[in-house]
Write a structure and sequence with these properties.
Helices cover about 55% and strands about 5% of the residues. The protein is mainly α and about 325 residues long. The strands form three sheets. A two-stranded antiparallel ribbon has the order 1-2. Strands 3-4 form a two-stranded antiparallel sheet.
Length: about 325
């Protein structure tokens, strides 16, 4: 990455951070808008990516948490900081339609905190968290161990242990997984001694989501011997680093594309949509989707597309009528 220069390095960093935020939310079943996440991160880091999308409060919240965990990793992890993260995740005081305790430990007023699945009446209990009255002492012990610099412990091992420990305590009504992964990322950032990361552990966990939950359940339901969890965590981290080449390839492809068309006449709409395609547009690009992305009429969208076909930046894919769509023309390496 160092050989690529600052511009491409920052682009790769932004790509990785965007993926990290989106995937840590997807693990919990929440899908965020990619443009909003990217815009929120770029604005906070002072990166120029052109027009910025309007951003919802819930997107701003998770971006704030993830950036604080990694960019301010040297600052101590405290109860106040954990409460701040929780408040950022749930700015309305609700999780979906349910009102929850925000920036406070759970109180188990509705019964034990359990992770369950399945239809009502046939639920499967995967995990029962420690009683709420134990949380104060347990969190104090956790934070003391997390910040203890006198005991020599590999930073990557500490990241795996912190992730498991916090998600097992399950101290909040909701958001425990996201906060546990943020704490793990914080430990990794300390270990790497850099604010920039070019792999996404959350993306890899999402890719292996079923095994992630399985190994957590086996560890939590057993006698809490952590060996199997750590072996899986380390292997998952290794696979995440291996997949970083995918992020790098996207950045390099984008750089080659704009190098080729650096002097070509394009309007703001064309540049915006092309960047969206280069960042990983899902689905097929049609005239109607172009019009929606660039907020213009379909006639204008069609003219934009025709002009890019003449430049050689787009090509018409196979299909006619409603199935007509267009593909990027990516320069050969």
């Amino acid at each position: 990455m160092e050989s690529l220069g600052f511009r491409l390095r920052d682009e790769a960093w932004l790509q990785t951070l965007t993926q990290d935020v989106i995937k840590t939310s997807e693990i919990e079943g929440e899908r965020l808008d990619t443009d909003q996440v990217r815009s929120s991160i770029a604005r906070r880091l002072g990166m120029d990516i052109g027009a910025l999308a309007a951003v919802d409060r819930n997107v701003e919240g998770i971006v704030e948490v993830m950036l604080d965990a990694t960019q301010n990793c040297a600052k101590p992890l405290t109860v106040k900081r954990l409460f701040g993260w929780h408040g950022a995740l749930f700015p309305t005081g609700r999780s979906g339609l349910s009102k929850i305790r925000v920036a406070k430990w759970r109180n188990d007023s509705a019964g034990p905190m359990q992770v369950i699945s399945g239809p009502i009446g046939r639920e499967t209990v995967h995990f029962t968290a420690p009683p709420a009255e134990q949380l104060g002492a347990e969190i104090k012990t956790f934070l003391s161990r997390f910040e203890n610099v006198e005991v020599e412990l590999d930073g990557v091992i500490k990241a795996g242990l912190a992730h498991l420990w916090l998600v097992t305590l399950h101290p909040f009504d909701d958001g425990n997984g996201r906060i546990a992964r943020a704490v793990g990322d914080m430990a990794l950032a300390r270990s790497e001694q850099t604010h920039q990361r070019f792999y996404s552990l959350s993306a890899q966990i999402q890719h292996e989501r079923n095994e992630y939950y399985n190994v957590l359940e086996r560890t939590q339901k057993g006698d809490m011997v952590v060996t199997d969890w750590l072996l899986w965590f380390l292997a998952c981290l290794q696979r995440a680093i291996g997949r970083a080449e995918e992020t790098l390839s996207v950045v390099l492809e984008k750089a080659r594309f704009w190098d080729r068309f650096a002097t070509s006449p394009m309007n703001e709409r064309q540049i915006k949509v092309l960047n969206r395609l280069l960042d990983g547009f899902e689905g097929k690009l049609t005239t109607s989707k172009w019009a929606k992305l660039s907020k213009c009429s379909q006639d204008t969208a069609y003219r934009d597309i025709l002009a890019l076909i003449e430049l050689g930046a787009l090509k018409k894919a196979e299909g006619v009528g409603r199935s007509t769509h267009y593909d990027l023309v990516v320069p050969v390496k």
